[in-house]
Amino acid sequence: MAQVLSDRKDVDFVLFDQLKVDELSKDEEYAEFNRKTIEMIVTEARNLAIKEILPTQKDGDTIGARFDNGVVTTPESFKRAWELFKEGEWVGTSMPAEWGGQGMPHSVGIAVGEYFSAANFAFMMYTGLTNGAAGLIHSFGTEKLKKLFLKNMNTGHWTGTMLLTEPEAGSDVGALTTSAVKNEDGTYSISGNKIFISAGEHDLAENIIHATLARIEGAPAGTAGISLFLVPKIWVNDDGSLAEPNDVVCTGIEEKMGIHGNATASLTLGGKGKCRGYLLGQEHKGMRAMFQMMNGARLHTGASAFADASAAYLYALNYARERVQMRRADAFEKDAQAVTIINHPDVRRMLITMKSYVEGIRSLLYYVAKLIDQSHIAKDEKEKAKYEALIGFLTPICKGYVTDRAFDVANLGMQVYGGYGYIKEYPVEQLVRDIRITMIYEGTNGIQAMDYLGRKTVMDGGKAMMAMMKEMQKTFNTAKEIEVLKPLVEKTEAICKRLGDSAMHLGKAMMEGKIMNALAFSYTFMEASGDTIMAWMLLWRASIASQQIATGNKKKDQKFLEGQIKSAEFFVNNILPLTNGKIETILGACCSAMDIDDESFGGK
Amino acid sequence: MAQVLSDRKDVDFVLFDQLKVDELSKDEEYAEFNRKTIEMIVTEARNLAIKEILPTQKDGDTIGARFDNGVVTTPESFKRAWELFKEGEWVGTSMPAEWGGQGMPHSVGIAVGEYFSAANFAFMMYTGLTNGAAGLIHSFGTEKLKKLFLKNMNTGHWTGTMLLTEPEAGSDVGALTTSAVKNEDGTYSISGNKIFISAGEHDLAENIIHATLARIEGAPAGTAGISLFLVPKIWVNDDGSLAEPNDVVCTGIEEKMGIHGNATASLTLGGKGKCRGYLLGQEHKGMRAMFQMMNGARLHTGASAFADASAAYLYALNYARERVQMRRADAFEKDAQAVTIINHPDVRRMLITMKSYVEGIRSLLYYVAKLIDQSHIAKDEKEKAKYEALIGFLTPICKGYVTDRAFDVANLGMQVYGGYGYIKEYPVEQLVRDIRITMIYEGTNGIQAMDYLGRKTVMDGGKAMMAMMKEMQKTFNTAKEIEVLKPLVEKTEAICKRLGDSAMHLGKAMMEGKIMNALAFSYTFMEASGDTIMAWMLLWRASIASQQIATGNKKKDQKFLEGQIKSAEFFVNNILPLTNGKIETILGACCSAMDIDDESFGGK
After folding, report:
1. B602 touches chain A (CB under 8 A)
2. Which of A84, B69, B155, B369 is a good FRET partner for B399, with 20 to 30 A between their CA atoms?
């Protein structure tokens, strides 16, 4: 039967053959997550996603979240889905069991989340934000705050959000003006206006806990003076019961291109002077805490975009296998019949392009999820630091590169459908619109590129990058032993080396003070890095597939395994030459983008 | 003052400095279109576009075309705009004056159309389709049909459409089943169902003339048995007055991603057996005629997508000049202030990318429009054939390559806006959705690529391509004499040569019967060609700009002219290396896309 949302065979291949996440169960933290359990969890999630969540997707788009006089209503079907989520304990899948979560490894949670996000991205944002806010409380909250909030959030009785953006403080978080004044009882009075708050107001849960950035009176300017607060929509008594509403007023929601099922709220805090919050962590150290949440959110954003791309690939693939249109271009007989469009060369080009990105990205995201698990159970600080450096280094790729490619994949999906792709009767149109936001929020992809080049590569002295290349080399060494992969590895190694050269080149430029010129290439550098990482992941898959073909143990998966080799072959031969071009432009160092006079952009 | 929709200085630069379209007035056909007149026309169109058409854009999106029981209603503001269009005689701008048009050169009409389409693409589709259908009547209609229809269509009293697509005949036009039976009075009874009919039903005009493909009873299978008919919505008496409705029933309109202001109608012809049509041209020769309209429609599609991209560039540029966010990355002083985002390197990268595509595409489209004019007034058949070959060769580029890049440009525009780009309060969100259709209709861009490689390059024996390269060489020879452009020309010439190699390589593969493998690279080949043509156009512009800077006659445009050189510099150094990569993949000839087993695509 045709797979939808996500290709189960591929999910299992990554989980068990490539990453062996079941081996995490050797650690007592994840002892119960053996292969059988993981398979059962993924199967359950998949069933729920297909049977119950997917049918809510269109409601999210057409009915959407609606605003009326301060109240936001979600579609009826969302409420039912949320109840099922609570019942099945799918909200806090990777949160600690002692606080109401399931304690699942992230590398399992990501497979679960892939099915759910592919089924309804806007719906899953309610859990994504909740996990992010709960994670902050878990990391920085006092015992009291944990007890007050965590369990209700991890079980979906309450949800969470993050309140960063203000009208004049978007990418520039440090410019925010929301203020906090300490009260005698230790709480803070909060006052300000926040915008673009995903899941900021809704009717799915009894309470919403807003992780809020604000500036305590007299704090230093910029990010160094920002503190983090927990601002519940409804105040919570010390015994955990709900008290009075907390002067958090939703003043409207945005009309957007997509993700209509998730309210993007404008919130006024303390309009009547009665908004209270708890300090989370230390005064003026809010950005450090918020970065944790933002990094989590960035990975979540990449994963959500990817899930929709995976769904788009399968929709397009299934359509291409069914839709009959035109004879083969090499069929000259008079009575040649029209064929399914999967037979047409350009459709195959689109499908194999989609396939190789979907596979490469799935491996990358699951790999990073496993690094998080490994860091979580690491026995010494050095080992932990190694994992964390790699996670930090790969985070902007998982957000910036992945969301760009996910958008491309969805657009190719639309293209495979032809005219039907553009109409709402077919599923890809919504996916394209929904995905588009992921390239913008949690830091635009331009911001990701700056972070990747400036902070994660150059300021790090290239250490994390070298650590990654060491990991890559392990894959290359194995793959080189396989006849059919050897030439592919050689090409990829050459690109890798040149990628290193381009990093050196940009690092040198920055050291010499040519910061702006270097940053004008940050996006291209992120792209070239992402491509190289894709090739790595695809070669890794292809080696395993080759080995499995050689042993002959997986006869029934023969075609699937051959497909792994084809993806790697396609990517290395058809995409990496463009990567080489990107690296050329970096090394070429032509800085027209910076040199051009502002006025010469025209338009006056 | 900030320019909107289209940059007037650049429009004039292309019209008069690059293409010298005013010199067409040396021919009596265009005698009245001297520079002063052209400037006046563009100014009038621009004013009307900004003051009257642009305000209807959002209505088109939010109110849209609505369907109720066979009747389609457009927004009220569209009706007023249409009246203004009729009054100002803006419908048939390039149609012959004797038939109610303005007789304007296409190269002027395209500048006019750019402003209008940028102001409201969905609205302008009503005129675009009308011109297309009227063009068919003009080329293939009898004197009687011309008299019956042309004047009313060219003046906007009636509109036109093209009825090709059926549920099982999309890209595969030859599969259509709509039938025609000859009546005793010489008309034909038409019967069938058509879908995806842009402007197929509406309330802007009294009548709609449907250019309809159908199969006369007993006709051969496939495209060879297709005939073209004119099917009026309301039958027209021989004296030109309206008679009874013609059994053409609109059964619904599509819910689409964008262009909501234009009804995409499903039409049932002859449901009651009473639909009549006139044969247009000869029996069974319908495709030949329709190709004329489709080619026109393809150019129009590229031009519309481009107009929106031009608007997106200016919106983003103006926003980047006003929006203050973050200090410069190289400002380390403690009191460094936030700056307008045009100062940030990655924003500049996006802007100069948008700028160079917008400029390159404007030049290309206006160039092709001028070729149409030149072909129109050509004095001998050989000259005419030369122009027509070039037009035919460049048409798939103007559609396939241009619409892809226009979509990219609009998406970059959204990205410059950050979060604001995704919400409907700002203009780019709609532009992205509207443009997306242009990559699909009038033949998907994959179809364009097949046409470009298969028909226009290989089957043509490369003659048109060589003719184009000869034209390119003229530009290169001039540019090479200019110091600052010399290295750019050398790089472009190298790419040009390799593009030629890749054409030879693909041609050889097709001759040897490896048709499918070659076609799997058709899209990449179209991309590489388009890039090279962009570089050509930008170098052409840069040479003129350099010469004008050297003479010092245009001091007040100094910055604009410098901007021309920067665009060329950016494109050659930052885009052509990727083009080189594309050509590498073609020459590399790795055919994983074809070799992969259908089952290996997965999803089962």
Report:
1. yes
2. B155
